[in-house]
Design a protein that fits this description.
Elements: H1 2-7, H2 9-21, H3 27-30, H4 34-41, H5 45-66, H6 69-72, H7 75-95, H8 99-128, H9 133-140, H10 143-150, H11 152-162, H12 164-186, H13 213-217, H14 220-241, H15 243-250, H16 254-257, H17 259-282, H18 293-301, H19 309-337, H20 342-369, H21 374-399
Length: 403
Amino acid sequence: MIAFLTENRRWLATGLLLAFGSSFGQTWFISLFAGEIRASYGLSDGDWGLIYTVATLSSAALLLGRGSLADTVPLSRLVIAITVCFASGALLMAIGWSVWTLGLAVFLLRFCGQGMFTHIEVTAIARWFVTTRGRALAITNLGFPLGEVLMPLPVILLIGAIGWRASWGIVAAVLLVVFVPLFLKLLAQDRVPRGADGPAAGSAGLGGVHWTRSQALNHWLFWALVPFFLTPGFIGTVIFFHQVHVSEVKDWSLAAMTPGYTAYAAMTISFLFVGGWICDRYGPALLLPVLMLPMGLGITLLGPLDMVWGWFLVLALIGISQGLVGAVTGTLLPFVYGTDHLGAIRAMAIALMVLSTAIGPGVTGLFIDGGVMFPDQGVAMGIWCVGLSIALVPVMWRLQRPV
């Protein structure tokens, strides 16, 4: 492992930084400002959820059309352009003066952070590594839980000290002053894909073919996987988006809830490596039927558990699923479709994931406005997770044979 880290440190650091930097556009980060944003603009839970939904849907649509840039534009140029755009969204959040500027800021944060930073990271690592793809993704995907465990408490303290708008100004400065120079240095050298014994050409998918986007869309497998692409993003988003609401309903303070991020991150990190090892050794399809079960259990328990430690348990169970999902999604698409058109195909999957994160806050926010508290909505989500797990069993079996 030490030799692997040393030999590939530049590329692993790039992926890790992209994953970590995506935090500024992730729902859990933006939701830390939810109370202040709603108060400043006079928004209800449903209003805020609707704005978030529209902005995120728009970012998903743009990602679907521009995700193929990861196949055609050198990463050294693409990453810098997206980072500057990302900083612009954070700055607009800091100086915004109306609901319209708020929506535009959220759109930029979602498109650049959750959308393109995540898309570029997973696509680049999947293309750069072949036989060690699962291990490499497990390492670089650590950036996601590291952000979730390291940022919340300092951000909450920063908001209390200088205000929510100035805090977003700090985010913009960090992206421009820290991230841009680091990316310029890391991406100054191009990467040759690595196979088992040295340099390798892009790896083909099932049938020895590099599938195009149209071929993927015209095959049953992609559509069979659509619920899998949608569900983790939906549940993983709403649990963090409504954390302020949960704290109010359960009478928990946000400070008391903060250690839940540590439980979430610990489980995510642990099962990223477990999932990566399984994917490299046995293939990613094997895990499909079990991915959603811990998440389903966790979201179901949110309703009946009234002590704050229940929040830690819920996030720990969701973290198990998110760790496994991170390993599987990073390896499954190149395994099935190959790497030549991976950016275009992955853009569809990422757009679906972003779509689910857009729908989630809006739908659950409307239910909250209608009197159904978010913890009580967890039972329906848990039932869905069990049903999806059962439905993915035949997909797993089909992937064990030529498709």
